[in-house]
Each structure stands twice: as structure tokens, then as C-alpha cells.
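Example complex used in Figure S2.
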Amino acid sequence: MAQSAGDRRRINGPEESFSPVFDDDEEDIKLKTQRSRAAGDIRPIFLQPGLISQANGSAYIETDKTKIACAVYGPRQTKTTTYSEKGRLNVEVKFTPFSCMRRRAPIRDAEDRSLAVSIHQAIVSSIRLELFPKSTIDVFITIIENDGIEGCIASASVAASTALADAGIEMLGLVSACSAAIVGDDIHLDPSEAEARASSGTVILACMPALDNVTSVWQSGHMTADMALKCMERCHERCIDIHSIVAQSLLEHRTAA
Amino acid sequence: MLSFISFSRPTDSTYHQSTRHHPDVEGLMDVDDDDLTGSEPRLTCPGETITSSQAFMRGHGTYVDKEDVIASVAGTVERVNKLVTVRAIRTRYNPEVGDLVVGRITEVQPRRWKVDANSRQDAVLMLSSVNLPGGVQRRKLESDELQMRNFFEEGDLLVAEVQAFFSDGAMSLHTRSLKYGKLRNGQLVTVPPILVRRLKSHFISLPCGVDLILGLNGYIWVSKHMKDTDQGEEGFDAEAVYSNKNEDIDNATRAAISRVGNIIRVLADHFVPLTDSLLLEAYEWVIEQEGDAKYLLLGDAGDALVAAMSVRG
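Predicted assembly (570 residues):
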């Protein structure tokens, strides 16, 4: 039970306390999944590189209620003594305690890691790791507010790629990512949490639009192969838009510096 | 802990554009009139195709894919004759042999120190490439290995020169000169390495009793002025070189040191490349304004300083 004490340096709050959660009836679900935008539209993106002064590169992304800060440190020498020809990329994801509907204890759990793995996969192939022998690039992602885990993965991948570019790390291209969910028979792009919960399956696509390469596809739930391909196609179109947002924010940041 | 800097303020960007290139290079930049040579520096993002590889050579920050030269960092496109490079604005320091760097000891290992010099890998300072106290020239013995922490300890700052590279790209430093060695009597200011140009001398003495060491890796040491000792190589003061004690620094010098430190911070915030004459002018301007050391960091004083400098420059 040593673990249950939690981190004694933090204010841990009561052990267990939940606000009452009521069952949503059909009406509510319908209301929540009703979108104020078209099925093929994504939430508006605010992206700002260079917000964290002590990091080598950083980015802050906000898509409606999803808010994510990303910091990049490195390339710096790997602490272990083993020699490696290629550089290493570490991705660490943290949720703030107030990021979700329920309080999240500041302890690493399985979800952090699965998020980190998918973000790692989305960006690792864009970085020219062969140029950084013996070095490590650390990417720290803090999820300040979470509205749908698929949107988080997509936004975090975009933020991470922006932060890497801000840090001046050599890359093949900028990565942008987009998510899609199947609600009923429709494809909703960039689903919110309520939409994702009501959906039968989701797809997250990460790609480098400048090179027309796909870096990662993540599909869960059940859907027909046809549907999955259609989702990827729609996501890819949006990725091209997101790419221009990323490029523009980087260029604006450069001219302002 | 995260600290957020304020949202980027719009600054007058004409100043640093006008000083973008070294004057010697400036003429080479506009050889003929194609899309690579505009008066405005062209900005690019990773993955963007810059030009075809048939007519141009690829430089740093680019790669070639199917006859296209593609940018791999976000920054400004630069061209010298046929060589196209992309220079990232915030990046790690790329060492070259002969560069003067300021670094911090991170680790003591058998017969070597590991030094953080803002590079991609830790720099290495071999025991064989430091001066022994007393100035005697001899092979380093086992007894020297045992007292390595008497020379440099973890956390110590030092100034050194890049001597060579190892096969894996890590740089090897040396401090075999009286100018190099442990640093004391001052403070460290870090700026983006791109802002420190190669100068005739990186040891600058300002007339206000402040010495500056402009490390090419972006680490700048601001310290009390040291009197030039005219002792030869042989008889240098053993105690002083590896001493950990600061000398007495009077209040006027302390104020001057922090004032110079703040000037550098302000100039770096506005992305102005640092030179000795610029720092001297900036210091004179600040004295004219009759503010104390911290006044520069408050309100519009920093913007005013940069504006005043751009008028003179």
C-alpha cells in the first residue's frame, strides 16, 4: 500500500471523490453528438511555437477544448553508456489532474503510455535520427485539457512535430495528423469525447503532406475495410490543411523572433 | 515546472534583416536573379522543396530526394554560389575546430571530464589536454588522475577551445593556454548560438571593469575585469587557476556585471547578433539613461535599447 500514498510533494486531495454521474438518456447523447460544424470539418486550431522558454523547442496547440503543451529537449547525449548509431526519440505524455471529467491522479498509468506509443509512431519516421548518433531527443507532452483521446493523439502529434521544427531538429517533413469516427453511417472528422463514445470505430491518420507519405494509421473499433479507407482519405485531405497551419505558425514565429 | 514566456511581441524586423549576413558574404548572396536570391530572406519549413539538385549543391539543413533539394529544418534559406543551406534559428551548437566555447562540467570520468557545451553530445576534456598547476609540462601520472576533482569538479564552468573531433562526432576540448581554464568572479548568460559571430577575439574587456567571454556555443561569461599578469607560461599562479573562491567584487562592479548581463539578455530576446562594438555602444546608452541594472528588463526599456542601437548601426 506504499503506492497508495501517492506523491507526498503534491497536494493529493481526497483519496476517492467523484461527482455524481448520471446516465445519459438517448436525447442527451443526441444533443451531445450534435455538431455545430459539418461532418467533414475539424475544430479550429490555435498553434503557437516557442512558448516554453527553457526548452530547446516547444509548441502549444488548442483545438476547441483540447489544450496541449509540448516541449522538446535535445538532441542531447544519451545517459546510458551503450553506443547506438542512431539517435533515440523518447515521448512522455502526462495528463494534468484536472484534464479529464474525472480527476486524474498524477501517477503514470497505462493510458499515458499507449498515447506516448502512438505519438512516437506518428513522428519517429519524420526525424532524421541517423544524424544524431549517441543522442536522445526528449519530447514531453502535457495534456492540459482533454476532449476526446483521438483528438489528443492527433493534436499532440502536430504539436510535437511543430516543437521539433522549432528546436531546429533535422526532419524529412512536418507531420500532421487527423482523427475520424464513425457515428451511425456518417464519418465525423476530429470527434469530441462524446462523439467518440457514441461511435462504433475510430481512425487516426498521421502523415507528411509535403512528401505525400503516411507515417502512422491507428484504427480501433469495428468498421468495414471500405469505411476505414474512406476515413483515411478524408483525414488525409484535412492533414493537408493542418500542414499549412503548422507551416504558417512556424514562419510567423520566425519573422517575429 | 513549466514557465511560459509571453506571446511573441511584434518587433521591428528590419534591424536584424539588415545584419543577417556577414558583410563579406553579403555580396555573394545576390549573384543573379532567380527565386533563391530575393532581398527578403526566404523562410522555409521541413519537407518543402527548395530547388533541384541538378543545378545546386545541398548544404546543412537540407537533403536530396529524387533530384530535389528539400529543407529539413525550419529557417532561412541561404545561398553561396551553388551551395544551398537552410539555417535554423534555434538550434544546437555545431562545433568547429578552433572555436572558443564556454562549458560546464557534468561528469568526472577516468582520465577525462564530460562537459556540457550546448552541443548534440557532451564534449570531452581529456586530462592530457589541461595545464597542470605550476605550469610544469609533463606526462599526467596516476596521482594526477586521482586528484582530477581538484582541477575541475561537477558544475564548474570553464572556457576552452575545440581541439578535435572523435569518430562519433563528439568534440574534444583543450585548455592548454593561460587564457583558458576555470571561470569565476562573474555570471553566465546563455543566448542562441547563432547570435555569436566569429570575432577577432572572443575575450572582450569593456571599459566599465567588466570582462566578457563570448563562447561560440552561445554561453557568455560576464565577469570582473582581471588584471593582465605579465608572467610567462612557466610561472603562472597555480592556486588562482583552479581556485573555487571568488575574489572580492565591489558593488559598482557587481552592478556593471548585471547591467551587461541584462543588455545581452535584451539583445538576445530581440535577436540581435552580438559584437564587441555593439555591446560597448549599448552599455554607453544604458549609462546615459541613468537606470539601475534591472531597469532594462522592465517595460519598454529593452525595446528602446534595441531601437537606439539600430539607429546607430
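The beta strands of chain A are 45-49, 57-63, 66-77, 88-95, 135-145, 176-183, 186-189, 201-208, 213-221. Chain A has a mean pLDDT of 88.
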